[in-house]
Amino acid sequence: MFNPRDIIETLANNVKQTTSPFGIPKFMVNKWFKDLSLPKEGEYMLITGLMYQFAPFIEKSTQYLEKYEGTKMASLLKYAKYMPGYLSGIGLAMMTSGKEKKDAGQPLKDIALLLQKSKVDFGYRPDLDNYSGILLYDMGDQKGFVVHAKKVAQKLKDAGIKKIITVDPHTAYAIKELFPKYTGISFEVKSYFELLDLESKDLGLEVTIHDPCFFGRYLKLSDIPRKVLGNLGITESEIRNKGEFTSCCGGPAESISPSLSNEIMGKRVEELTICLGNLKKSGADVEDLSTLLVRHI
Does residue 190 sit in the same domain as residue 210? Predict the structure, then answer.
């Protein structure tokens, strides 16, 4: 296991310098929308929080952490916080394949299509779409999170944004629950699947659902995706530990200890046949909810 302080200080330094926990300039991260003709204004503003876009970079950095965990090289991580954020970020971006980066944006395109099919009035402005800072909060750097969150929330408020659509559980929790508490700025926040209105079908399919901790335990939204799937004739396999009693996929631990993350992930895979997020690394058959829905609308 790495020294948690070394990890936290490195991530916090990157966020402070670049607004990204990995130091990657936003123009190199957020490209999914460029070949779409999305409106800039609407009743809701779509905010991705860049979490989907960060996925390939998280995987690449975790591979290096896993390689050096438990070795003498692990102690050198304490010097990473002294490296300019953009320098390490650009290096990480260059080491990550173009295909991985492109694939990470596909669920966002699927979500935009689902919202359009549901006739949701939304806009997207990449200049307003920023990382929420949730990883700092998760790892205990509350002060760093608050400083960053205030900047993100104020920018949205100054732009006149009142209603927000989120796409991932981490950003949803940050903007809906943490921003009002720590920044004093509130928005009406909906996860994209709460706004879907898709044509009913009788597909006769069965899937197993992994509930992310934030959706299951804290935001208590686990019933909504099930209703959306049920409307399409897609039923759920019975498993233990779901909804507000969901099991962790191991993702939150991977920054500190990839080996511990793998152990937690393995236990969750034993409970699931289809799973999401960090569980993909186990070799399980993984599909994002948005991808499954788009294929069957």
Answer: no
